[in-house]
């Protein structure tokens, strides 16, 4: 539809003299905030890293997936926005609660109903991918001892981290306390980029302090350095432009500190506390039908009874081949 509009001469707002016209006084803080909100659409670039254990040949397929998906998504999103501008002015874009729906109403006529359905399907696909990958964060954290052990358990038949998925669902519902989508994006975006920057900085530190450790996927340090410069600009000016929103985001993040001291740092917990956690874990296991996953080469799992281990092995190991003589007797 965008190409058709351009061919019909509807490209007034794409001409440089109109496209770069200022509708308000330029502000460096608002520019940083615009980057923060716009980058939310491209936030999937890091989600594949959460499921490397479940990828086939991750050292080859992980970089390949990222190199293919980022340019593809960028191409689609940028040209979708170009299409919007052929039918709507910048003021109409800002006033619309659902730009794609307004675009459909202007150009598709009686077929405008296609756009809200398409948006819903796109949203469902995005949420599905986000839940699939984000739950692995809780799964990995529990496996390292930073979260309750039940989150590190998987279903005995499907081998999916059901407790981690349910925990992701609950934490997602808590985010809906605020009804302002842009405020929510600012909360999540600020916290995400704070952790992204710390992670990328850690890569540089490890490259300097431990240069000889194995690195199956290795890139030039120029890329993380450029990212950190952009990251610093984004966070500093976003904090300056929206100090209250970013401050609330920091406060949400810091709620994890007392949880860490209570659950991880505090070793000598009272027996009643441990008994309660054990009971909660047992009830969750029975409700979700989950156990600890077997590691390759492990003959037993610490903390599990023999009956549970045997049950886990029976579900996750292939059935033995039938003896030929026994099979012939059965056929007879």
From TrEMBL:
Molecular function GO labels: L-amino acid transmembrane transporter activity; neutral L-amino acid transmembrane transporter activity
Main location: membrane
Keywords assigned by UniProt, alphabetized: Amino-acid transport, Membrane, Transmembrane, Transmembrane helix, Transport
InterPro entries: AA/rel_permease1, AminoAcid_Transporter
Subcellular localization(s) per the UniProt record: Membrane
Transmembrane segments: 28-45, 66-87, 107-127, 159-178, 184-208, 220-241, 247-266
Pfam families: AA_permease_2
UniProt xrefs under PANTHER family: AMINO ACID TRANSPORTER, LARGE NEUTRAL AMINO ACIDS TRANSPORTER SMALL SUBUNIT 2
Protein's recorded name: Large neutral amino acids transporter small subunit 2 isoform X4
Species for this entry: Octodon degus
